[in-house]
Specification:
- The structure holds two protein chains of two kinds.
- By secondary structure, chain A is an all-beta fold.
- Chain A is 0% helix and 48% strand.
- Helices cover 0% and strands 55% of the residues of chain B.
- In chain B, strands 2, 4, 5, 9, 10 and 11 form a six-stranded mixed sheet that branches. Chain B has a five-stranded antiparallel sheet with strand order 1-3-8-7-6, with no helix packed on it.
- In chain B, a hairpin with a 5-residue loop joins strand 7 and strand 8.
- At the A-B interface, strand 4, strand 5 and strand 10 of A face strand 5, strand 9 and strand 10 of B.
């Protein structure tokens, strides 16, 4: 089966611009998560979708970040306007209903650089 | 917020040596996971430990969950160059999300 797919793999944008990251989970996985790792820090949770609903968005840093999962399939994470401190690697993970972290599969990540 | 302290952050040893990576917290986790991450890839799950005192083995890798479920260790026996990579511990917080340690970058020299 296809894994979790993220694109773009890399993105370099200027401060103030908008960037949209996309995640395609494994087909049939109801749970979709976003995490990010900023330079020198640990990977941190951003939010969790169950199908199209936001279950937990406690890790979203501020209102410049907007995540959507229309139709409960792929998800997008938009950063508008981007700031320098948003640079890092953004990971998406998915899992089947009822498995949570026991069934996590991570994507390869999107490396975002804000200059 | 529960924090996980992982040590050492960097470790470089010779092929054939043994090593242990530690993951410590002041908080209790319902379960704890170990991941391995290669450059340009996402973390890949190695093991989940659930019960205090649990020990799991994966070939030359031995994972242990502390009795109080606050700490864990990863021991590699007779390390090989193929073991080189970034190892991450992660505690399960609530039912769905992970709290990660900063990772241990392991280099095994031939």
């Amino acid at each position: 089966e296809a894994g979790v797919t993220q694109f773009p793999s890399h993105s370099v944008i200027e401060k103030g611009q908008t960037v949209t990251l996309r995640c395609d989970p494994i087909s049939g996985h109801d749970n979709l998560y976003w995490y990010r790792r900023v330079m020198g820090k640990e990977i941190k949770f951003l939010l969790h979708f169950v199908k199209e609903s936001k279950q937990d968005e406690s890790g979203m840093p501020n209102n410049r970040f907007l995540a959507e999962r229309t139709g409960g399939t792929y998800s997008t994470l938009k950063v508008q306007p981007a700031e320098l401190e948003d640079s890092g690697v953004y990971f998406c993970a998915s899992s089947q209903a009822g498995t949570g972290p026991l069934g996590y599969t991570f994507g390869s990540g999107t490396r975002l650089t804000v200059v | 917020t529960q924090l996980l302290e992982q040590s050492p952050q960097f470790l470089s040893i010779q092929e054939g040596e043994n090593l242990t990576v530690y993951c410590n917290s002041s908080s209790v986790f319902s379960s704890l996971q170990w991941y391995r991450q290669e450059p340009g890839e996402g973390p890949v799950l190695l093991v989940t430990v659930v019960t205090g005192g649990e020990v799991k083995k994966l070939k030359r890798l031995t994972f242990q969950f502390g009795d109080a479920r606050k700490d864990s260790s990863l021991h590699i026996t007779a390390a090989q160059p193929g073991d080189t990579g970034l190892y991450l511990c992660a505690g399960v917080q609530g039912a769905q999300k992970l709290v990660f340690g900063q990772g241990t970058r392991l280099t095994i020299n031939p």
